[in-house]
Write a structure and sequence with these properties.
Blueprint lengths: L1 H81 L25 H13 L3 E8 L4 E5 L1 H5 L10 H9 L3 E2 L3 E2 L5 E10 L5 E10 L1 H10 L8 E3 L5 E4 L7 H8 L5
Antiparallel strand pairs: 1-2, 1-6, 3-5, 4-5, 5-6, 7-8
Length: 256
């Protein structure tokens, strides 16, 4: 009996030892897995941080070029607004809402200067003048003026912001009448005492910004994108993403 009891105890101890070894092995494997996952995440994070630091100067350079393009356009409108030819509206009594403003035979000099502006800056699809109250006065080309369906623009945020700041304002992006992505740039025409007498503005196509992204694309980036302050896609190194349907699909991507 004593021998049998000793044998049972030995077997029990052996079983316990096996369980302890098994549990120890499981804990060891689990620990290795946890450490492996941690190291992998840490290395990926470090690699991403390093990638960011290496390529941030490239992104800043591109951002500077994009800002430069917008600033060139806004500066050109400020210069136009300061010309003597734009300091006074010559034919407000000739406004005809059926044609969106004054007849094509009036304000010939303003229209001539607008035509020259669009040659110098072909990204502008339309140039316009609004009265101080937001009513349409003139647009170039005249065909664009004739197609106006909204006569007063005083409810537009860019108009209101210009009135508030008394300075040039760039609107949020929107789809223009031609189906292309655009922004409106609006600058005040001021009298000698600083009063806003009228507004001079333009509809600026954003296609050139995607052109910059295409020219700038390097191996460090799979794609280059430009998103405005509303979170809308306004530029992509693959212009095919800028169609209305694909823009919506792009903004649903998890990384965005």
């Amino acid at each position: 009996m004593p021998d049998e009891r000793v044998a049972v105890l030995a077997k029990s101890e052996l079983t316990n030892l096996r369980w302890m070894m098994l549990l120890g092995g499981i804990v060891a494997i689990f620990t290795v897995l946890v450490v492996s996952v941690y190291l992998r995440n840490a290395l990926e994070h470090e690699a991403f941080q390093s990638w960011q630091q290496q390529n941030r100067p490239l992104a800043r350079t591109l951002a500077g070029q994009i800002n430069q393009e917008i600033n060139k356009a806004t500066s050109s409108l400020r210069l136009l607004a300061a010309l003597p030819e734009f300091q006074q509206l010559q034919a407000p009594e000739s406004i005809d809402r059926r044609i969106g403003g004054v007849p094509a035979t009036t304000e010939v000099e303003k229209r001539r200067l607008f035509a020259l502006q669009m040659v110098a800056y072909p990204e502008f699809s339309v140039l316009f003048i609004l009265k101080a109250n937001g009513d349409h006065y003139l647009a170039h080309p005249f065909s664009a003026q004739q197609s106006i369906t909204k006569y007063n623009m005083s409810d537009r945020s860019y108009f209101q912001e210009t009135v508030r700041t008394r300075d040039t304002v760039v609107s949020d992006s929107f789809t223009g009448a031609d189906g292309k992505l655009v922004v409106a740039i609006n600058t005040p025409i001021k009298t000698s005492d600083g009063t806003i007498a009228a507004h001079l503005g333009g509809v600026f196509h954003l296609e050139k910004l995607s052109g910059l992204l295409q020219q700038f694309k390097v191996d460090a980036f799979d794609e280059l994108i430009l998103i405005d302050r509303q979170g809308e896609l306004i530029g992509h190194s693959d212009p095919g993403w800028l169609t209305p349907k694909r823009r919506k699909a792009f903004l649903k991507r998890p990384e965005i």
